[in-house]
Amino acid sequence: MIKAKCMKQCIITVLFVCSLLNGHTQEMVTPFPAPDFVLPSAKGDTLHLSDFKGKTVLLNFWASWCEPCREENKKLAKLYHQFKNESLVIISISEDTSGVKWKKAIVNDQMKWIQLLDYTDWNRSTARRWNASVLPASFLINRYGMVIVSDAAYLLTDDPEGFKTVLRHLASQ
Q: What is the mean pLDDT of residues 119-143?
């Protein structure tokens, strides 16, 4: 209990300092179970979020027509090599309606991590189930499958060292 409380306080402190420095706000949320999904990948297979239980996941919603999303993707691409060995899995879910534009953006933005395409039907949409109505939207999911931070990608892109500290604390839980 004390260890979890200390870890939460450390994460809150890192998030607060980062928000002061960059004007973005990451929000610690009351942990809740990450809603599972099954979506097609850019490689042609289908993936479940639950396939990644036991790992820390940065879940990122984006679209090829969203300029802030594209800027964030490029920042993530530059940092990806630093984090791929840190027990972090990045999963991006595109809200594109055109598979061609989606795949072109993946190549142009050099997105080497897992890429999934959401359903175009809003009633079946993963973004709707995750309340990701404004793009980009991102969530940090701990290894137990609990969502713990919203707008988490800003922390990774704006303070990579702070993000590494958070990952180390999550790994020690």
A: 93
Nearest residue to 142 via CA among 13, 61, 1, 29: 29
Among 21-25, 64-68, 72-76, 129-133, which stretch is predicted with the lowest mean pLDDT?
21-25
Query: What is the CATH number for 50?
Result: 3.40.30.10
User: In 10 A of CB 134, how many CB atoms?
Assistant: 11
Q: 42-67: b or e for each residue (b if 16 or more CB lie within 10 Å)?
A: beeeebebeebeeebbbbbbbbbebe
How many domains is the chain built from?
1
| Residue 96 lies in domain | 2-171
d(CA 98, CA 36) in angstroms, rounded, equals 24
pLDDT averaged over every residue in the chain: 85
